[in-house]
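Handoff note, outgoing to incoming analyst
You'll be picking up this chain. Sequence as last confirmed:
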Amino acid sequence: MIEIYTDGASSGNPGPGGFGVILRSGKHYKEISAGFRKTTNNRMELLAVITGLEAIKTPNQQVTVYSDSKYVIDSIEKRWVNGWVTKGFAGKKNKDLWIRYLNIAKMHQVKFVWVRGHNGHPENERCDELAVAAGKQKDLQIDSVFEMEMGKANLL
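Most recent structure output, in case you need it:
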C-alpha cells in the first residue's frame, strides 16, 4: 500500500504557484515539490496527484491519495472527467493534465480520500508548506501549456 499526500497552491489565480507531494510506503518516505511562474491552484492540485503517481516505480500498486482538493476528487470520484473525455474536453480547463492523470492512474489501483485543508492534518500541512515554498522560488518552471492557452484567450 502506497499513500500519497498532495497539495497545490498559487499566489493569485493565475499567478506563481507550486505543489507538494509526500509518498509513503512502509519505511519509505519521499517529498516532491516544484514551482511554476504562472499557473492556477487547480492545476497545481492536479499536478501534485499526477507527480505522486508518476513517482511510483512499480505498476499495479494499491494507492491511496489524500487531497484537500474537491476539484480533483469530485472530478474523479463523480466521474465528471469521463464525460469530459467523451466530449473532447469541450469548454473544460486543464485538458493536458487530465489526460496525463488518466494515463498514469490506469497503471495503479487508486482511491481518493478527501482531507479538510488547513485543519492540522500533519501530512496535508507539510504538503501545503512544500507547495507554498515551491511557488516562491526564484527560478520557477514554465507551465507552457497553461501560458500558451492564456495567451490564446487574451487574443480573443
